[in-house]
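Lab notebook, bench 4. We co-purified these components, and the gel suggests they stay together. Before we commit to crystallization screens, I want a quick structural picture of the whole thing.
Request: model the full complex, all chains together.
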Amino acid sequence: MANKDIEARRQELLNDGYTEVYTKTKVLTDAVMHYCPGCGHGTTHRLIAEVIDEMGIQDKTVGVSPVGCSVLAYNYFDVDFQEAAHGRAPAVATAIKRLNPECYVFTYQGDGDLAAIGTAETIHAANRGENITMIFVNNGIYGMTGGQMAPTTLVGMRSATTPYGRRVDLNGYPLRMTELLATLPGTYYVTRQSVQNPGAVRKAKAAIRKAFENQKLGKGLSFVEILSNCNSGWKMTPVAANKWMEDNMMPNYPIGDIKVDGKIAEGITAERLVLDHPLTVMQ
Amino acid sequence: MARELKLMKGNEAIAQAMIASGTDGYFGYPITPQSEVMETLMAEKPWETTGMVVLQAESEVSSINMVYGGAATGKKVATSSSSPGISLMQEGLTYLAGAEIPCVIVNVMRGGPGLGTIQPSQSDYFQSVKGGGHGDYQLYTLAPASVQEMYDFVFDAWDIAFKYRNPVLILSDGAIGQCMEKLYTRDNIARWTEEERRQHAPWGTWGKPAARGHNIITSLELESARQEVFNHKLQAKYAEMKEKEVRYETINCEDADYIFVAYGSSSRIAMKAMQMAREKGIKVGLFRLITLFPFPTKQLAEVAKRVKGILCVEMSAGQMIEDVRLATECNVKTEHFGRFGGIIPTPTEVLEALENKIIK
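Here is the predicted assembly.
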């Protein structure tokens, strides 16, 4: 349905006496998103937009989009935006913030972008304690290019470049960037969240809000990993993909805060930070 | 600082000019023979005086992308490096050109290929003016031949960069970067105020006021028809540069039977060789390129009509000579003379090359 048709239908319902309880936030544009139905990108975009709206910082926010599924994020957020080269968003965001300290600067990156080609930029931005917010959507796969293995692909998980499952002897281990970054003194807030059900969405939003609020403090980098399904890449229905994510992704990538206010979160042990034996999944 | 006579290295001149020209940010990574640029900036602490940001990045890949991020907010942002580091920056440079972001990049060339040598060379001509990164794009490329020009060209680079919304490359070499010469400084230009930034860069991403739509900086356009239109726009911009922004210098070309064509350090050596030739009664002139892109095609072709031969002098295996031959349409005998691997030719060698390759 075109936007004008949606608006007409909305007016019609309001005229019929319906009460509006949920609307599109004004920080999202009217552009129709290209994301696959059921993917976590749409929800995550909305949560970021709501946080920007609620904090009243639309006129001070600059986003940086990656290369990958969310390369076109700049079309969906009604804030100033830059599109970075593959993996370079943290370097790009570093300079935006350093030269415009009054701005709220965030990167939005996937696992291929952030954890493979952009590893150096990510680690060094974090280690410098850049006062930015990084949103990291992890679906364990390269979605945009057709479902190839990512650094986050689970052991045993099939992808276009691991058709028989990821093998440790050939491909190494799944990379847990979030745990790794939590060990750096430059990070102030490090958390892993997900968006597959209403409870998870609420927690993810609170985390994103905190990650943006932290920019006021100037105490270091805030990093929010969001686990998402990639139902088309995983070749499952959205519902089955969410179930598979809970059963397989979450044991390898546990949900929750890892570092809060510059300190390792309560209950996070050395064993939790260092996952010696990644679980093997069977597909 | 006001107009003063100073003695400094070419690399220091770059750093001083950045501060004096109101540069907002510099992001770099150490590499010989240009490390003095960042060292000078760090020692000068311009963040305490002009408010300029200076940051050492983790790689040239990062520093060029920091230039992208900072410059795309409409601020004056620069970097410098030397050949291997500039190779690493090629991805960033094509993105900068594709997103039409004004910025200044300095390459203090050293010998290659690979890790090569830390001594001076001019073998990055192709990389500078024939692409370097992927896609059809051009960097406005200035070739300083003295410490004074290292300083002055930074000011000129900002004017061109913002006039055309295009990256500007200052292509120097280790000899100019390392040598000490006198230079006259200029009056400081203050960094732009918030208002001036908005005026010079209405496309910048500094946060969207309610009154305007969101500004997007990207080099992506998936729709081929629109991507072609955009490419035509870029080509029109480059054509305008060719029309209006060509810079060169002619010395003793009016009565010359032969000319040297050279830029940067080689033009200084060719100048001496020219004087030696004149003392021997050989009428030699010098056509010095100041802009490598846009190349002074028409102007060189005009001079070439009156001479019997051209010797291209470049510290390379012969890169610039291709553009010289294109300019003259091979209507006049044109040969190359160069040394590699960080060897700087002597004026005597250059004169001998003229006599052996052109006059004989």
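The domain at 5-197 of chain B is CATH 3.40.50.970 (Rossmann fold). Worth comparing against the SEC data before the next meeting. The two ends of chain B are 53 Å apart (CA to CA).
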